[in-house]
Amino acid sequence: MTSSSTPTAADGGAALPQELQTLAEAVARRRNFAIISHPDAGKTTLTEKLLLYGGAIQQAGAVKAKGEQRKVTSDWMELEKQRGISITSTVLQFDYSGSTINLLDTPGHQDFSEDTYRTLAAADNAVMLEDAAKGLEPQTRKLFEVCRMRRIPIFTFINKMDRPGREPLELLDEIERELGLACWPVNWPIGSGDQFRGVIDRRSHELILFARAQRGRQSEERRLSVEEARASGAVESDLLDQALEELELLEGAGAELDLELVRAGELSPVFFGSAMTNFGVRPFLDAFLDLAQQPVARPSSAGVIDPVGPGFSGFVFKLQANMDPRHRDRVAFVRVCSGKFEKDMTVQHARTGRSIRLSRPQKLFGQDREVVDDAYPGDVIGLNNPGVFAIGDTLFLGPRVEYEGIPCFSPEIFAWLRNPNPSAFKSFRKGVNELREEGAVQILYDTDESKRDPILAAVGQLQLEVVQYRLEHEYGVKTRIEPLGFSVARWVVGGWPELEKVGRIFNCKTVRDAWNRPVLLFKNDWNLGQLRDDHPDLELSAVAPVVSGVEPISL
Ligand code: G4P
């Protein structure tokens, strides 16, 4: 058989064992993860240090230029430039120590949005980053809930150990108590703040000593045994004794790291370090690569799909418009789930049944785009999207598969969207419908049909600004926003019949979502709690299940 007649995944032929072998190796090499954290915990700093180790950037400050406004690699849109923030989340791929790592960037500042949640649908592992002085913070908790829903393994990195922080045991206790996530420290700190001396690696029982490295430098961590540390006086004995005592306490609670529990998202390996001074980042990365799961089999309409299978499949988890003002295009980000992806493949689009040739797939690294020839499970590719793809869409080759889709997550900001200019209604309608389809924002409607203006429902304030900005610049409609004083939304499980059963309800507003499902809006959690007390049988959900095969309501 000549190579030109070799069946490939691209023409739908059966993959040869050799190709499967290559695929299996590519999958085994890949680790894909997202960082979940609260603003200021050090995500940008940690990302930068990880990229430095991977050789993906040459110097610190490439991700966030110090002294400038916050400027991140994904700095595309005009609005982003004005605000000096990153709206777009990208994937950063780099090689380290024989592994190919895909770091899915979760927008996390003022740019917190539904994309942040959706990115987690594409992640196989999560790194929960905490500031040692603050412990668990609100945004981290919310993102944790999404990880928990998907049962993805969570690795905890407790950052800023070079500064005074809370007691390590107290930090772990908080995670266990409040998140119900058991912890297994992989290393344990010796002192903290000014007296931070390093960590004890729990598996090798070695000390890794901390030296205040120059900002941005890869510090060479010095390793030595407990005995050597004592003999050389490298660490004050009282600090070392305390750390060893605490470690002993931990051993009593469970000496083994149970990998199965880690993979089930029930046990979190915990690391202490300081991203800024580069301490503990390399040991973290090494252990992470060892313990994290490779791209996993995913449930679909055709059963669980093994990543090492001959047929390509993947799903759209994010749509991005106008990333490059010179192109004014849209990109659909696809997470590859199985098989090998090849440029120019003709794939099936599960929702519409259409065949689509993927001729210019892109790999994105910050601002740079390059056309990719192939991609493997765990990778993310960017496809030009002339309005074909929607969030959650499955693409496949071979037997039909459809992945579960991505649910709608509970919005927290609500506002009427007004169009003061009736003659622009057509453009207004087109813009609102397209932005909803794209997942830029959720649209809710009043139950009173005479109030026809849409209600924008967002996870972050910036989503509203983006919608207004895009309506103006892409659809030529200037709009006005009128905030609604609600901050909590819940879907009624069982829909309208269940809601009718309970009769009149107080201190909340009932609206409809784009699939005509009842959604209750509350001013605050307290009002939600009140309704729960009054009607314990009414089942409410913070996440709306995926609807398939039903067309949403358009404006
Ligand atoms: P984020 O992306 O999670 O929001 O956090 P980011 O990395 O921007 O870090 C927030 C601040 O915390 C930055 O300081 C950063 O330098 C600092 N930081 C991050 N890791 C550590 C650490 O391990 N130890 C200490 N002491 N500080 C850390 P900034 O003053 O806001 O910015 P910059 O002037 O340092 O750039």
List the helices and strands and how they pair.
Blueprint: H1 17-29, E1 30-37, H2 43-53, H3 78-83, E2 91-96, E3 99-104, H4 114-121, E4 125-131, H5 138-150, E5 154-159, H6 168-179, E6 182-185, E7 187-190, E8 198-201, E9 206-209, E10 222-225, H7 226-232, H8 237-253, H9 259-263, E11 267-272, H10 281-291, E12 298-300, E13 303-305, E14 313-321, E15 330-338, E16 341-342, E17 346-349, E18 354-357, E19 362-365, E20 368-371, E21 374-375, E22 380-384, E23 394-396, E24 408-409, E25 413-418, H11 425-438, E26 442-446, E27 455-458, H12 461-475, E28 480-484, E29 488-492, H13 495-502, E30 508-512, E31 518-522, H14 525-534, E32 540-541, E33 543-544
Parallel strand pairs: 1-3, 1-4, 4-5, 5-11, 6-11
Antiparallel strand pairs: 2-3, 7-8, 8-9, 9-10, 12-13, 14-15, 14-23, 15-22, 16-21, 17-18, 17-23, 19-20, 24-33, 25-27, 25-28, 26-27, 26-30, 29-31, 29-32, 30-31
Helix pairs in contact: 4-5, 11-12
Guanosine-5',3'-tetraphosphate binds at residues 37, 39-45, 66, 159-160, 162-163, 274-277.
Task: Summarize, please.
27% of the residues lie in helices and 27% in strands. It is of the alpha+beta class and 555 residues long.
DSSP helix count?
14
Largest sheet: number of strands, sense, barrel closure? 8 strands, antiparallel
Task: Quickly count the domains.
Answer: 3
| Distance between the first and last residues' Cα | 57 Å
What would you say this structure looks like, in words?
This protein is α+β, with helices and mostly antiparallel strands. It has three domains: 264 residues, Rossmann fold, CATH 3.40.50.300; 98 residues, Rossmann fold (3-Layer(aba) Sandwich); 137 residues, 2-Layer Sandwich (Alpha-Beta Plaits). 27% of the residues lie in helices and 27% in strands. The protein is built from 14 helices and 33 strands. Strands 28-25-27-26-30-31-29-32 form an eight-stranded antiparallel β-sheet. It has a seven-stranded mixed β-sheet with strand order 2-3-1-4-5-11-6, with helices on both faces. It has a six-stranded antiparallel β-sheet with strand order 18-17-23-14-15-22. Strand 19 and strand 20 form a beta hairpin. It starts with 16 loop residues before the first helix and ends in an 11-residue tail after the last strand. The site of guanosine-5',3'-tetraphosphate has 17 residues, from helix 2.
